[in-house]
Amino acid sequence: MFAKENLLRDVMSALPSSLGRDEWLAALPRALVAGFVKTDKDFQEKGQTSGTTVTFVVVDQWTVTVASVGDSRCILVPHGGDIATLTVDHRLEDNEEERNRVVNSGGEVGRLSIAGGAEIGPLRCWPGGLCLSRSIGDVDVGEFIVPIPHVKQIKLCKTGGRLIIASDGVWDALSNEKADSCCRGLTADLAARQIVKESLRFRGLRDDTTCVVVDLLPPENYVPFTSPPPAKKKGKFKSWLFGWRSKESTAVVANKPGEAGTVEELFEEGSARLAERLGSDLSSGVFNCAICQIHITLADGISVHAGSIFSMTNRTLEGPFLCSSCKLKKDAMEGIQHARDITVM
């Protein structure tokens, strides 16, 4: 509930207000990282022990941007193309890179031990026993369970497609292909209900089983590309296409050759290191913390590229900059030190 009420606002607050559309889309991946970390940090200060996976999807015309932590998943079924997975499952059992990161940051990874020393179940992070390496919340497990999302941005062709966004209760029961096939031909609302129904039929209600389906539809007057007939006489024809058309428009939006079902990847990054995700900034952002957006002076700001808050390594004058509280959060996520002593309620 806390993420639902705050995450979108935190992401939007990290985006400059004066950007054009292309600049806004280019800045979105970095803003998603900042927003996820801020929401997690603010919830951590409440001292509560719950946590959540997140799959956050932004659709801007044909550009789709997905940020995720945990094992909720988003798949894209482009019309006439192959299924594309737009998220990464942050399960310790399946992700060796994440296991190594948790251990290197001070966590322990192992299975649940029962009487006699036998080990059962999936790999978990201890203390706490969480099966995931990334989430928002879960402060009782450890700071090495980070909120830094995997972000992927793609451009879909004008034939459209379907997004299926669901929690692990669905994906533990259904493959990507099964989730697509069981709801094909249904409206988005009915498709989501059918996916949940199929999940419960295969596995029962063992975990959160939630699904949202979003259909990205082509313009109503769209027709697939076909080769034009031979010209009867010499001439020139120009067509200017500017995105979406109104329902009243009589212009025909034609697809380009070879475009049907294709997905263009614009951006993908999954590093759990904040400095790599926020990048470098030699000018802007100096007077605002790159995470919480509070005003800071140049003297108070600490470069995201600096070492521990107590060290003076190189690149200390290279932005973006963090306030002291967010720098402590960064150090804790990387296993340098604890962000704060937290009283669990």
UniProtKB/TrEMBL annotation:
SMART domains listed in its UniProt record: PP2Cc
PROSITE patterns: PPM_2
Domain PPM-type phosphatase: from-to ranges: 1-216
Any one GO molecular-function label of the UniProt entry: protein serine/threonine phosphatase activity
UniProt-listed PANTHER family: PROTEIN PHOSPHATASE
Protein name: PPM-type phosphatase domain-containing protein
Species name: Ceratopteris richardii
